[in-house]
Structures are given as structure tokens and as C-alpha cells.
Amino acid sequence: MDLFKVFICEDESIVREGLRDMIPWEKYGFEFAGDAPDGEMALPMIRKLKPDVLITDITMPFMDGLSLSKTVTKELPNIKIIVISGYSDFEYARKAIEIGVEQYLLKPVTKTDMINALEGVRKKITEENEQKDYVKLYEQEFKKFERLTHRVFFEKLVEGSLSVQEIYEEADKLHLNLSADAYNIVIFSIRDVDQLAYSDDASNVTESLLNQFLQYPDYIIFRCNLFSYAVLIKGDDESVKRMETKLLKMIRENCEQRSNALDWHVAVGVATNRLSGLSSCYQDANRAFAYRHIFPNQHIFTSEQLKNEQYVPDGSQISEIDAGKFDPLIIRYFVQTGTAGEVSTFADDYLQSIETSVHSILFRYYLLVSIRVNVELALKEAGVDSEQVANNLPSFDTNISAEEVKPYLVDALTVAIKMRDAEAQKRGNDIINNAVDYINEHYADEDISLDSVAEEINISANYLSAVFSNKVGLSFVEYITKKRMARAKILLRNTSKRSGEIANEIGYKDPRYFSFVFKKNQGCTPSQYRNGEVEEE
Hints:
- Helices cover 55% and strands 12% of the residues.
- By secondary structure, it is an alpha/beta fold.
- Strands 2-1-3-4-5 form a 5-stranded parallel β-sheet, sandwiched between helices.
- The longest helix is centred in the C-terminal third of the chain and has 38 residues, at 405-442.
- The protein is elongated and about 105 Å long.
């Protein structure tokens, strides 16, 4: 059992030593940490020791107990204070209550009085710690960045469709603190090389990283789309740069240490000092992120690099690349991983490297055949029916001009991505139906998890998480919790089972955590719901 540290501040040495020696501290869950004869001497000791409980007299020289308590509670807001006083004046008690003192004891203080006070304080500390643990567990399970409301807010934020006042109002509703002097956005994706097959690699690395990011209040995480996340970094100019470096380091270390079979990319925007500048910041990051299609073996891209030069991994100019050596597999990779919104930018960047070569009729023909072949191969790998591909992909004339190459490329890629997404949606519907059927049957299993469901239906957990929230409108945990809460309400209203029995029946090992989650979701305790104190909506 962890012991709570106690510090005593009392100017009368007989009283101070008596308090110190008369209590068997460990027996009641405490550890005596130190003492001082007045507030002035106590304060630096308290700052160093950080006790859980302060026992202090009110009237002392140099700094009295109320002044000490006021200062200490500002610096250590969770500390519990027991005041002992020779005065029964209500004004002293009133001031002590205003400060947040837990117990107010009148001298002479008996051993029984002090033990009762300490037990009351210990109970409160234990309950508060338990609540903190539950809050932490709840926040980890119900990740804010997985919620549809957060994703919708982020989309509005980066579209630039909200005024600054509206940004603050929306953020306040979602309990997001966006106040800062500077901001930046980092976009990242971590995928299995074979995205659909069940694998622990990408899911575990992503989960590990997201849990690490949650420990830092200056990182606010949003899911961008199926396979990418955005991290909004906030702080001052110096701390944003430092946190950006830290973020990149964490992503690189996690991805490089875990597996070579991961397809991971990171892009960094240009920092801004205005909330209204986040739209431009995101566009900068997103443009840098699109370069993953041009250089799939490069992992980190920054807007600063792209502003200064046409970036390639070795730092040379794209115009210096031999057009005959330009990799046509880039087209296939883009069809596999790109989005409709990235097509135009990708086409510009891809064709820029071969700008002079497209004026050659022979090279144009080679290029267009290569585009067509690689688009078809990518769609075949995505499971699109070959007849559908043949009927829908645009054809090209052998006499196509240099100016018509980009429109053809844009058209071909746009059509290909539509077919890819339609196939993915059809496959996603099958996946979700299988997942939902399994969850509906097993939601009461205490060990059910995203990984266990993904393994059961033989799909990547990372992919399942992405398509599940897209299709269902709830994250995996939100859906299971909704099922559990619905069942709990039926059992509460229609049976005499105790709360602990109901918790166990719907998949919660800890009855108190069940009560915590129930109150969070339903706005009342299980007993209040059972007694009809809250009506159904």
C-alpha cells in the first residue's frame, strides 16, 4: 500500500512533537515526512517534499497557518490541509473553508480526533486518486481524436470556414484548449505494407505513438482520414519548435525500431502565430505530405524544404533527374494511397521532372502507356474488376499533345481513385458487417478489443479502426460502450441485480469503473437511473 506523506507545522514544540509521536502513521496509511516551527520555515520544505497532507496551526510567528495554507494550495492544489487552532472564532473557520481546508480541529487535539481527521483525509485522497485513474483510463479508451465530433471540428478548422470566435466556441464545447502564442500542424500515417491483411505492426506502433502523444497537453490529435492523423502543436515560438522536433523523433524511433514492413510518412507545416492561420498551416503540411507519392522511400517532409527548392531526398534539383530513369511505379503507389484532393498537385509535381521530355512524341507515348499500365495494375491489386477498369479508364490518342498530358493524367488518376474507393467501400461494408455481427455477439466479453475483433475477421486493426468510425459514426470503443450501456439500463430497470453483478455481466471487471462510465455517458449513477430519478430521453 502506498503511504501518503504528512508534514506538520506548529510553533509549540510540545504540541508539534506530541502530534509527531502519538500517531502510528504507517498503521493508518501515512508516512511522517517532516515538521517546522512556522510557515516561513515550512514553505521551502513543503516545496521540496511535496507532502499529501499538511497539518498546521493557525497562529504562528513570521507566517501564520492560513497564509501558509493559501500559498501551498496554489502550488500544490491536491494537498489536503488539517488546521488546528486554539480559537473557536467562526471567522477563522470561515477563512479556512474559503482556502479549501479539509478539517478544522480545536486544541487540545486528542489522538482520536487526529486519527479520525486523518482517516477522513485518507479516504478522500484515495477516492480522488481512483477518480483520476478512471478519468485517465476513460480518456485513453475514448480517445478524443477518434470521435466524429472532433474530426468534423478539425475539418472545419483547416478548411478555414470558422471565424476565430467560432473556433474558440467549438473548441470549448469539445473541451479543447487552443489558447497559445504559436501553432503548427504535423500530418503522419503509418500503414502495413499489406494494408488489409491482419497484422500487429502498424496498429501497435500507431497505438503506442498516440498514447505517448496524449501525455503532452501541447499535442492535440485528430484523425484526418482512413490512415492519417494530424497533430496540432501549440505553445510559444520556441516550445512549438521543440515539441515538433520531439514529435518527429518519437515517430521515427517507434517506426524504425518495430518493423521494416511499415509504410510511414510525416509532413510538417509552417508555424503560425494565429488560429486563423491554421488553414494555411495545414495546406502547407498537406502539400509536403503529398510528396510521399513522389518519393515513397523518404519518410519525413517539411514545408520549409519545399519552399526553398524542388525537394528530392539527396537535395538535388528535380530538373536534373534523367527522365528515362523516372520511376513509373510512383503512379501505381499514388493510385494505391493518394486522395482525390491530391491529384492535381501530384500531377504537377510528377510532370515537372519531365517537363522538357514530354515534347518528344516517343517519350509521350511511352509515358502514357506507362501511366495506363500502372494504373491498371494498381486497380487490379485493389480488387477492382478488370472489365470495369477497361470500360471506365480514359483512353488517349497517339497524337496527344504535350499540353494534353497533364489533363489526361489528372483524369486517369481521378477515375482510378473513384473506382478504388468504391471497391474499398464495398469491401469496407462487408468488413463492418462482419465486425458489427461479432461485436453484437461478444460485446459483454471483458477482454474484447479492437485487436481481438480484427484478428477474428482477419483484417488489420489499423484498417478496421479507420473504416469502423467512418461507416458507423462511432469509434470502436464508443460503439461497444453504447451496447453495454443499453444492456445495463435494461438490467437496472427490469431486474434486482446489484450494480456489481450487472457490471460483470456486460463486460466490466471493476464495478466502480462501470459506475463511472455509466455516469459519464448517462448523466446519472446506476442507482439514480434504477430509482427513476432520470427519465429516458
